[in-house]
Amino acid sequence: MEAKESKINKTKYAYEVIRTRILDGTYTQGQRIIIDQIAKEVGSSHIPVREALRQLEADQLIKYEQNIGAVVRSINDNVYKESLELLAVLEGYATAESTPYITPDDLQELTSINEQLREVVQNYELQRFGELNQMFHMAIYKRCPNQLLVQDITKVWQRLDSVRNGGISFYPSRAPQSITEHETLLSMIAENKPPYEIEAFARGHKLNTLHAFKNKS
User: Which residues form the signal peptide (predicted)?
Assistant: First the structure.
């Protein structure tokens, strides 16, 4: 039993090491993942590293190429657009599902985060904007009764983060509009608007990001 738990822990550690390096840009798109090197770093055999790579392949962060092995996945504009379309559906539903469980304290927290977003936009802190924007939406999804849905959303977010680190940039003119849409969404939640209206608005909120990307505005 102890040996099995140790293997699981080493797999998890290897997974986190590789995933973090992909998402922070240490490993660039197309870069080969050298199993022997990772195994030495995490102090394990090759088996936990290979299992970690299988998980990362399922997350669509790496892929296997013939005669090369595991490489960091390159995601083109089309996959980026498809990921945003998928998020529009998932986040719209997750927001609607979360709404009945959001408390006045939650609304106060969300309002505070949105005000911080306004401040960082004024200071042109683009990376911080992305962090706070995800914090805003996760503050909603923590009330979602379907946590498998939230896990799927998080995985797509991580994939998009790797794309941004690979060169797809932020579109500044979208930021103020996004903050205003957050305010509208919070008003709808506070006013107990029907779930289908909230779902449609949240879906449109994400699709507006897609439209901004297409227009490169």
Answer: none
The number of domains in the chain is: 2
- Which amino acid would we find at residue 32? R
Does residue 100 sit in the same domain as residue 15? Answer: no
Given 72, 107, 131, which residue is the final one in a domain? 72
Which residues, other chains included, contact 45 with Cβ-Cβ below 8 Å and sequence gap of 6+?
39
| Rounded Cα distance, 113 and 136, in Å | 6
Average pLDDT, rounded, for the chain: 86
Tokens of 206: 């994400």
Spatial separation of the C-alpha atoms in residues 74 and 69, rounded to whole Å: 14
Which residue range(s) make up the domain with 100? 77-215
Same domain, 173 and 92: yes
Domain check: are 46 and 129 in the same one? no
By C-alpha distance, which of 62, 29, 27 is closest to 41? Answer: 27
pLDDT tens string 88-142:
999 999 999 999 999 999 999 999 999 999 998 888 777 788 889 999 999 999 9
CA–CA separation, 12 vs 16, rounded Å?
6
Considering the entire predicted model, what is its pTM?
Answer: 0.69
Q: Same domain, yes or no, for 87 and 67?
A: no
